[in-house]
Specification:
This protein is of the alpha/beta class and 489 residues long.
Length: 489
């Protein structure tokens, strides 16, 4: 029988606990007895403790180790670490590394139960400096690593959608209907704020789809008439023969097919409130004179009737036509034009307020994501494409495109390539010839430079490779990317 006894102080002097190990080799079978003066202390520890001898053979594990790893003493005591690794109990052994390097080693190991632990193995030496055992401490960091992974994923998403999130954080002038914070829309809203509480007639002009009705509703909602009716009349959709009866109403039997009890006109319906005469330039000349009388005298007479009715209505008019040119052509009464044009408000085209384009796009995405229970997002390149597109159909076109993308885009992340498929090749040519002929040279250079840097970083992944592809220095790429708000991965 060969007996070997080791004695070593494994903890600091204040603990005064000593551990003795005796390894016995009998008939080629290895048996171990491990007597610990402070065994109760080790078993009460929250962290796991794993001890091997100088040959990497397991001689002790505490209760916490079993709890954390799911490994029982019978599975490891007396067995070399290399054999335990081959059995799949461990992916690697910090104890063996510590034995090889003769120094403390820390690794992250994963156990068969899925737990991931921070493992620190420290060699214990005798008085001659020889390793007599390795004491390993393990701490369960599974939840910590899971949290770290979630944080990293969150940070990745944050960087990926940074542009979109920044747009969403920007203060909106009106969170209900008016989306935008460009200088152009701010000027419009400043006028709206000043004239909302007075009853002056307002003429709202602008291209089709810019949001003239939205501005009209905003005027009404901010006025003292906000609790009274808001009535919109689309003058372009009313047949010429029905104009007068639709606007002013008619009496019983006024004409063939008239209702037996008569019918109030739009002005009567809007009494005490606001009426919007949309597409005012489409009103026939013979009706324009009667409308002028309503504006001047604030009274109407139904078709087929003789009774004059006083009305209390604020009149707003909207058109995409140049009424002054219509006057010169003899298609619109000059006196009516000046009656309507008391407070003129021109709504700028969407291409004139580029700062609002992405903000509006995100607003409509949120709207239709909610409506159709989707979760579509724009990536940076898509947002940039939308910002540069000329939008001949203005806000209405943008709104329709966003609804279409939410419904038919197969991916949750909408790219510029997919948006390009939604519009014709001719409509995308603006990216190359700069549709705005009055664009400043510096702005044109910035647009091209920004897109080139973004594409290079997207394609080559690193600033060094992007710099090589662009033929500029890496610091220049970093500086310009930061300047343009392009996030570096």
């Amino acid at each position: 029988m060969l007996g070997i006894v080791y004695k070593e102080d494994l903890v600091n002097a204040t603990m005064k606990n000593y551990y003795t190990a005796r390894a016995i080799d009998i008939s080629n079978d290895i048996g171990f007895e491990f007597r610990i003066v402070g065994k109760g202390i080790l078993d009460s520890m929250h962290d796991g403790v794993y001890i091997t001898d100088s040959r990497g053979i397991t001689i002790f594990i505490n209760k916490a180790y079993t709890r954390i790893s799911g490994i029982e003493k019978e599975e490891v005591i007396g067995i070399p670490m290399k054999e335990l690794i081959s059995k799949g109990l461990f992916t690697e052994s910090a104890s063996l590394i510590a034995l090889e390097q003769n120094e403390s080693v820390t690794i992250v190991d994963k156990f068969r139960n899925g737990k991931r632990c921070l493992v620190t193995s420290s060699p214990v030496h005798d008085e001659d400096g020889n390793i007599i055992m390795v004491v390993t401490n393990i701490r369960d960091i599974t939840e910590l690593l899971n949290l770290k992974t979630r944080v990293e994923q969150t940070e990745l998403l944050k960087r990926k959608y940074y542009f979109e999130l920044e747009q969403l954080r920007r203060e909106q002038i009106d969170k209900k209907d008016i989306i935008g914070n460009s200088k152009e829309i701010e000027e419009v809203l400043e006028v709206v704020s000043k004239i909302s509480e007075v009853d002056a007639t307002v003429l709202i002009t602008g291209e089709t789809g810019v949001g003239k009705e939205v501005i009209a509703k905003e005027i009404h909602n901010k006025s003292l008439r906000k609790d009274a009716p808001f009535v919109k009349v689309n003058c372009a959709s009313i047949p010429e023969t029905l104009f007068e009866s639709e606007l002013f109403g008619y009496e019983k039997g006024a004409f063939t097919g008239a209702a037996n009890c008569g019918k109030p006109g739009m002005f009567e319906v809007a009494d005490k409130g606001t009426i919007l005469l949309d597409e005012i330039g489409e009103i026939p000349l013979n009706i324009q004179s009667k409308l002028l009388r309503v504006l001047q005298e604030k009274q109407i007479t139904r078709v087929g009737g003789t009774k004059v009715q006083k009305i209390d209505v604020r009149i707003l008019a909207a058109t995409n036509l140049n009424l002054k040119e219509q006057v010169e052509k003899g298609l619109f009464r000059e006196d009516l034009y000046y009656r309507l044009n008391v407070i003129p408000i021109r709504i700028p085209a969407l291409r004139e307020r580029k700062e609002d384009i992405v903000l509006l796009a995100i607003h409509f995405l949120d709207l239709y994501n909610s409506k159709y229970n989707m979760n579509k997002k724009l990536d940076y390149s898509a947002a940039e494409l939308l910002r540069l597109y000329p939008w001949p159909g203005n806000v209405r076109e943008l709104k329709n495109l966003m609804e279409r993308l939410v419904l038919i885009c197969p991916n949750d992340i909408i790219s510029d390539e997919y948006i390009s498929k939604m519009i014709s090749k001719k409509e995308v040519e603006f990216l190359y010839d700069f549709y705005d002929k009055e664009i400043h040279l510096n702005e044109a250079v910035a647009i091209v430079e920004k897109q080139l840097i973004y594409n290079a970083l997207k394609n080559y992944k690193t600033t060094r490779k992007a710099a090589e592809a662009l033929g500029i220095s890496q610091p220049t790429v970093v500086r310009k990317a930061n300047c343009y708000g392009i996030k570096l991965s």
